[in-house]
Design a protein that fits this description.
It is built from 13 helices and 15 strands. It has 361 residues and is an alpha/beta fold. It has two domains: 121 residues, Rossmann fold (3-Layer(aba) Sandwich), CATH 3.40.50.720; 184 residues, Dihydrodipicolinate Reductase, domain 2, CATH 3.30.360.10. The structure holds nicotinamide-adenine-dinucleotide. Nicotinamide-adenine-dinucleotide (NAD) binds next to loops. InterPro entries: Gfo/Idh/MocA-like_OxRdtase_C, Gfo/Idh/MocA-like_OxRdtase_N, Gfo/Idh/MocA_oxidoreduct, NAD(P)-bd_dom_sf. This is Gfo/Idh/MocA family oxidoreductase.
């Protein structure tokens, strides 16, 4: 069994649950610089090996993997330290919130010879897993276009002090989900354009950057896709709209993975129409109160990562694919600033990352 340490125990709570329930992992130690948070989680899970010092995880020779769930702007530094300490790394989304340390991370990771896996939870959610399997099975024919979005009433998130800093952007924190879903199917996005604004509720809540955004992508082969995100206002009932959705339109069929209600719908290449909900999996995905946690997805991705480590295979999204997604998000940011289309290749070149052009699964 692989030995895991977790850094950051807000969202890291779901990872604690995932690791404690997984037969493939032994949770060895957890870390949060806030002692009260450590004590709170220790009580919640009856798991008492905690520390407030990240260096205790880095210097623990028995740890195989460190899982990182600190605020977005700290990921780059925490990943670097873990790789330098000789650990494999899982880092939650967004992998980074700018590209300033991307080149350095590629170099550190190549030297360390350790794996970095991006915890893109939505890929590991039941409807999205089923959608991918049906797509690979040819049930919608060739993919023509994608529409993906993530809209949520995240006004509660504004209680976190780092959400009100200039460095926090919903573009990275929220849209990294639908953008990753698009790149899962259409890795080579060449150009993007979009508009964004800070909504009246966002202004009132103290947000500094756009919380309302719509974008159009063009892939190298000419196909197009669209993503959007709205984060500081009410959403429709989930029966009608699922907060996060991914729609694939193909030459012979069409499918939709919905986050809320664990719902999946497809019209197949034989004309069959199916709407599936995964009632028997509800307890795996939603194991605490409410539906705003991700323990089931994290357990799925931790087990996938454990298998990749055991078989010495690349776990996707890896560092290269993850940085490619951040470069696309960076191009989207530039398009918001300039009001003009932006080429991802230009962003990669500006950051000395031209080697990553087209890098994906
Ligand atoms: N679906 C998903 O994959 C998903 C969902 C929610 C959040 N997240 C990600 O998880 C990350 C954390 O978000 P959150 O909502 O838990 O934030 P949070 O502020 O609630 O929790 C972050 C924790 O990290 C701790 N921390 C900060 N700096 C530290 C340091 N240097 N050493 C040790 N501990 C430190 C803080 O004390 C805090 O408890 C973000 O990157 C967010 O985008 C991912």
């Amino acid at each position: 069994m692989l030995k895991l340490g977790i850094l950051g125990l807000g969202e890291g709570r779901s990872t604690m649950s995932a690791a404690l329930q997984s037969p493939k992992w032994e949770l060895k130690v957890v870390c949060d610089r806030n002692l009260d948070m450590c004590k709170h989680r220790a009580k919640e899970f009856d798991f008492h090996q905690y520390t407030t010092e990240y260096s205790d995880l880095l210097n623990d020779p028995e740890l195989d993997v460190i899982a990182i769930y600190t605020p977005d702007h700290l990921h780059a530094e925490h990943i670097k330290q873990a790789l330098l300490a000789g650990k494999h790394v899982v880092c939650t989304k967004p992998l980074l919130n700018d590209l300033s340390q991307a080149k350095e991370l590629l170099e550190v990771s190549a030297k360390a010879g350790k794996k970095l896996f991006v915890g893109q939870s939505s890929r590991f959610f039941e409807p999205m897993k089923r959608q991918r399997a049906d797509y690979e099975d040819g049930q919608i024919g060739d993919l023509v276009t994608i529409e993906a979005y993530y809209h949520a009433d995240h006004r509660w998130f504004l209680e976190k002090p780092w959400a009100l800093e200039k460095s926090f952007r919903w573009l990275y924190g929220g849209l990294s989900h639908p953008v990753d879903l698009v790149r899962w199917y259409m890795p080579d996005i060449e150009e993007v354009m979009g508009y964004g604004m800070l909504s009246p509720n966002g202004v009132k809540g103290g947000l500094k950057n756009e919380d309302t955004m719509h974008f159009i992508f063009k892939a190298k082969d000419g196909r197009i896709a669209r993503v959007s995100g709205v984060y500081t206002g009410p959403v429709q009932p989930v029966l009608r709209d699922s907060e996060m959705s991914c729609i694939l339109r193909g030459t012979e069929g069409c499918s939709q993975g919905d986050y809320m209600d664990l719902r999946y719908a497809i019209t197949t290449n034989t004309g069959e129409e199916k709407v599936i909900t995964f009632e028997h999996k509800l307890k795996h995905y939603f194991r605490f109160e409410g539906k705003s946690h991700h323990a089931g997805e994290y357990q799925n991705y931790l087990e996938y990562f454990a298998d990749c480590i055991a078989q010495d295979k690349t776990a996707y999204p890896d560092l290269k694919e993850g940085i490619g997604t951040i470069a696309l998000l960076n191009a989207m940011e530039k398009s918001l600033e300039t009001g003009a289309p932006v080429k991802v290749a230009d962003i990669l070149q500006q950051h000395d990352l031209a080697e990553l052009q087209g890098a994906a699964v």
